[in-house]
Amino acid sequence: MQTEPSSHRRRHYVFTFFSWALFTAVACAAAATEVVRYVIDGDTVVLSNGKHVRLIGINAPERGRDGVPSQPFAAKARARLAALVEGRRVKLAFEREREDRHGRWLAHLELPDGVRVEQVLLREGLVWAVAVSPNLEKLSENLEAEKAARAARRGVWGVPAYAPTPAARLNSKSTGFRFIEGTVHRRTQRHNVIYFELNPKVSLLVSGEDWKNNFPGNPSDLVGRKIIARGWLTESKGRLHMRVSHPAMLTWGE
Questions:
Q1: Strand, coil or helix: what is 124?
Q2: Which residue positions in the chain have pLDDT lower than 50?
Q3: What CATH number matches the domain at 164-252, 2.40.50.140, 1.10.3720.10, 2.30.40.10, 1.10.10.250?
Q4: pLDDT score for 96
Q5: In angstroms, rounded to a whole number, what is the distance separating the alpha carbons of residues 82 and 79?
Q6: CATH for 30-158, among 3.40.50.11540, 4.10.520.10, 2.40.110.10, 2.40.50.90?
Q7: pTM for the whole thing?
Q8: What are phi and psi of 30, to 5 degrees?
Q9: Helix (H) and strand (E) counts in the chain
């Protein structure tokens, strides 16, 4: 005759069920499959459910708008991404931060054969690798993929317009994604943000938390060093700032 499970066994069943449910929920949150409806540019797609997705770890040249012409390789980056994913079912893999400030999903796109889309674009020199904390899981793989294109001066790496711009030549209109170069003349800190001044009107910004978690050494060690930085320049009150959250966005010398 079957007897009613003991309270201990019932608790075990309940614990096992909720553990399984939690594992399933986490797995579903970390990955999903969707169909790509169309491609906006070389790093952004729209899914069949209407959701916009910004690919993690890359940045593509900007398409033209409002009378501003497209940047070199913008059309090729978009066309290549469209050829890879448009109308196809892809796997979306999320990291710690799932949405950006525009409400777009942040995800990696993986093809049915297991190929990750960002690496294809990086190897072909159609996009740049970027490191934006806290989504850094694939950073080393992305940098390795970019390395081959950079060495061969393939795609964006062979375009003079994308060469680093000296800080002294930047002005209030020099905003957007770019490479800049200069010497760190001074380091200051305000409200847990470290400022590395390349000149009185151009600074690199690193949060204290990002420095502690991602950067080696002491911030003062960069004073006097030559820096090449990649990232998004923004203008505020006549000054230009580039936020940097990982040393992969910097190359520095003596």
A1: coil
A2: 1-5, 8-10, 12-29
A3: 2.40.50.140
A4: 95
A5: 5
A6: 2.40.50.90
A7: 0.86
A8: -80, -25
A9: 5, 15
What's the pLDDT score for residue 181?
Answer: 97
pLDDT of residue 127: 98
Query: Sign (positive/negative) of CA torsion 86, 91, 97, 103?
Result: positive
Residue 34 is predicted with a pLDDT of: 96
With H, G, I as helix, E, B as strand and everything else as coil, classify residue 152. Answer: coil
Token pair 């200051």: residue: 188
Q: For every residue of 192-251, which 3-state class applies, written as one string?
A: CEEEEEEECCEEEEEEHHHHHHHCCCCHHHHCCCEEEEEEEEEEECCEEEEECCCHHHEE
Check: CB of residue 149 under 8 Å from CB of residue 158: no
CA 254 to chain centre: 27
For tokens 């409200």, the residue is: 191
- Residue 23's pLDDT is 36
